[in-house]
Amino acid sequence: MKHVPSFIEKSEELKSKGVEELLLISVNDPFVMKAWKKSYQETKNVKFLADGSATYTRALGLELDLAEKGLGVRSRRFALLVDNLKVVVANVEEGGEFTVSGADEILAAL
Predict the structure, then answer these.
(1) Exposed (0-12), middle (13-18) or buried (19+): which is 61, by Cβ within 10 Å?
(2) Cα 65 vs. chain centroid, distance in angstroms?
(3) How many whole angstroms separate alpha carbon 5 and alpha carbon 17?
(4) What is d(CA 100, CA 9) in angstroms, rounded to the nearest whole number?
(5) What does the alpha-carbon distance between residue 10 and residue 35 come to, in Å, rounded to a whole number?
(6) Which helix (H) or strand (E) holds 82?
(7) What is the residue-wise DSSP string for 35-74?
(8) Alpha-carbon distance 42 to 33, whole Å?
(9) Of 74, 70, 22, 77, nearest in space to 52 by CA
(10) Is pLDDT of 1 > 90?
(11) Could you tell me if 78 and 90 are in contact, meaning their C-beta atoms sit under 8 angstroms apart?
(12) Residues β-bridged to residue 79
């Protein structure tokens, strides 16, 4: 309800500060990601990407095993700022919080 909209709303400001791409990656299949994107009137510069098997999420060490709740492997909520393929900021949330991984925190880091 907050994470994705923050990046959509601030996408022009992020672009003006030099951000080339805004990539939303989720442990879902491409069909879910397409439907999720369509649920927003405007997605501006945000690309919705599927990580169906959590391969990328696991490579980052950001997987969250929710198998006991019937959800399988998911992803922790995070925002990365990457420059020339190097992570320069990694804002990773604890639990279900939304305090460090929004667009405002990435803007502050720029």
Answers:
(1) exposed
(2) 18
(3) 19
(4) 17
(5) 21
(6) strand 78-83
(7) HHHHTSS--TTEEEEE-TT-HHHHHHT-EEE-GGGT--EE
(8) 15
(9) 74
(10) no
(11) yes
(12) 91
Closest CA to 6 of 110, 104, 107, 77: 104
pLDDT in tens, 30-88: 999 999 999 999 998 999 999 999 999 999 999 999 999 998 899 999 999 999 999 99
Determine the Cα–Cα distance for residues 107 and 17; give it in Å rounded to an integer: 8
Give yes or no for a contact between 22 and 7, defined as CB atoms under 8 angstroms apart: yes
Q: Which two tokens stand for residue 70?
A: 């019937």
CA atoms within 13 A on the CB side of 25: 18
Measured over the CA atoms of residue 35, residue 5, residue 21 and residue 72, the dihedral's sign is: negative
What whole-number distance in Å separates Cα of residue 24 and Cα of residue 71? 20
